[in-house]
Amino acid sequence: MGGTTLDDAARSLGALLLHAVEGMDRPLFVLDADWRFSYVNPAGAKVLDRTVDGLLGADIWVEFPEAVGGPFEELYRRVRATGRADAVETWFAPLGKWFHADAFLTDAGLVVSYDDITARRLAEDERVAAVAAREQAVATAARAAADAEEAGRHLMLLGDINLAMTSTHDTDEAVQRFAELSVPQLADWCLVSVVGPGGIRRDVGRAHRDPALVEAMHRYADARVASNRSTAPVPVALRSARPVVIPQLTEEHVTTMVGDPVSRAALEPLRPGAVAAFPLVARGEVFGALTLVNGADRGPHTPTELRTAEIASRRAALALDNARLVAVNHQVAERLQLSLLSPPVQPDHLELAVRYRAATRGVSIGGDWYDAFLQPDGNTVLVIGDVMGHDVEAAAAMGQVKTLVRAIAFDRREEPTGLLRRVDEAMVGLAVPAMATALVCRVELAPTGRRRLRWASAGHPDPVLLLADGKVRDLRVRVGPPLGTGWVGELADGDVGMPDGSTLVLFTDGLFERRGLPLDEGRAKVRAVLAASAGLSLTELCDRLLAEMLGDGAEDDVAVLAVRAHPMNRPRPLEAGPEVLPPGGDSG
């Protein structure tokens, strides 16, 4: 086949770059000489609370009049006037966020990209508050050593709360940890409320310093949400997004707060003497509330306790928001990854089955992928790989690597090692920001009429060949380094016959790698499961392999690609399903 032209390569590179810009998380847009939007990526339209079509051709000063005369306009005009790239960090009130904006001038116009740095600024605010608390503790140490010791304990508490809540992404578990750490340092007992979809409030976190009163606390907490009047501290704190402190709780307060006599009776054994409610607010959103209650013997909350509780509430809110964002990012990455995992071809006498299982014990989606397609000569190419990294970045990089492998493999017939080397060179030359393991196999029809399997590996686990009689072979070959490293050393191809009735199984390392389990034992289990599954259909074999190897959940993403060789002198078996070829494809 002829080589690609420079124009073809330029178009391919341009398409790849456009795909990368379209898929990246960082917002980006381009302004023409008349200050009109000539390009906006989806992330940019989302942050600007517009649609891409709605922004294209629009005048930025008309679309966003609030920016006129502000730091953004100054940045854009300065860069356009000087031709030098520049940046600015500023608050943009209409969107209620802090942004870091970068701008530079190109022939295509003024290119602007920016990051939402609200979380960072909030974190800086918290650090400033913590530093202020330490400085105040030092300044007052001469007056009372006890105050300094108390401040130190509370700073340690903030660290403990931050660590406890950020080490899990389960909201209920994080909130319970928050409650348990708050007692007794900040209060005799506390309740932590979480506001869910539709504004529904739940008292999830509960802790009391006195074990004898824990049951009474639960009885009151079970009834509190339904019995709280709108004037109670938590509803007021949620509405105003400000703390509510009652240093001396009276019977009149209790009657005003709790409308149900049964709930007031449930509260009575707890003998509340002081209450403080803090909203859990992060990035302008209310996630719940912390309620601290002291008994009559302890007295009102001290200023240090209240200050620490307010900081802790902000940190807890950020942790809850981060947990939500992680979950959303996880879902987006999984959807993106699944959208890039296209169904395999089904050549006439080869039956293919694929499986993908996302990690269930962690919080990240990886870059596992598989692919199967026909070359122009009718040979079937099988690919499985794993892009290093997690979530959206890994899924986006996986799409780039998969496309490179498919395009380069289709370009010419060559040994798998040659294909891997060209893909590696392309990734390095095109500065693809990823490294990936990959296993490439090609099923060929030899002149003798028998199938041959050729394969090569770039840092990927060896495939396994299951024979019709149940014997299992690890197809070993010298493994090269991952793609994207620019390796110039030797690579090795494997070559073996693929008898009728045999099944080739390719998989990623998530199938057999486990904490505390040697790799050899994991692979031995894979072989044992396959040997016991020799009589099953291909789909049943794949399902059993995942069930036996993963059990109740996967620690890492898992991709499996299985191929069964049916006799070529008979019709395609019914259990293999219909033949599926690309338009104009020929399975030979």
Automatic annotation (TrEMBL):
<dbReference type="InterPro" id="IPR035965">
    <property type="entry name" value="PAS-like_dom_sf"/>
</dbReference>
<keyword id="KW-0378">Hydrolase</keyword>
<dbReference type="InterPro" id="IPR003018">
    <property type="entry name" value="GAF"/>
</dbReference>
<dbReference type="Pfam" id="PF01590">
    <property type="entry name" value="GAF"/>
</dbReference>
<dbReference type="InterPro" id="IPR036457">
    <property type="entry name" value="PPM-type-like_dom_sf"/>
</dbReference>
<dbReference type="InterPro" id="IPR052016">
    <property type="entry name" value="Bact_Sigma-Reg"/>
</dbReference>
<dbReference type="Pfam" id="PF13188">
    <property type="entry name" value="PAS_8"/>
</dbReference>
<dbReference type="InterPro" id="IPR001932">
    <property type="entry name" value="PPM-type_phosphatase-like_dom"/>
</dbReference>
<feature type="region of interest" description="Disordered">
    <location>
        <begin position="569"/>
        <end position="588"/>
    </location>
</feature>
<dbReference type="InterPro" id="IPR029016">
    <property type="entry name" value="GAF-like_dom_sf"/>
</dbReference>
<dbReference type="GO" id="GO:0016791">
    <property type="term" value="F:phosphatase activity"/>
</dbReference>
<feature type="domain" description="PPM-type phosphatase">
    <location>
        <begin position="350"/>
        <end position="565"/>
    </location>
</feature>
<dbReference type="InterPro" id="IPR000014">
    <property type="entry name" value="PAS"/>
</dbReference>
<feature type="domain" description="PAS">
    <location>
        <begin position="15"/>
        <end position="81"/>
    </location>
</feature>
<protein>
    <submittedName>
        <fullName>Serine phosphatase RsbU (Regulator of sigma subunit)</fullName>
    </submittedName>
</protein>
<feature type="domain" description="GAF">
    <location>
        <begin position="170"/>
        <end position="330"/>
    </location>
</feature>
<dbReference type="Pfam" id="PF07228">
    <property type="entry name" value="SpoIIE"/>
</dbReference>
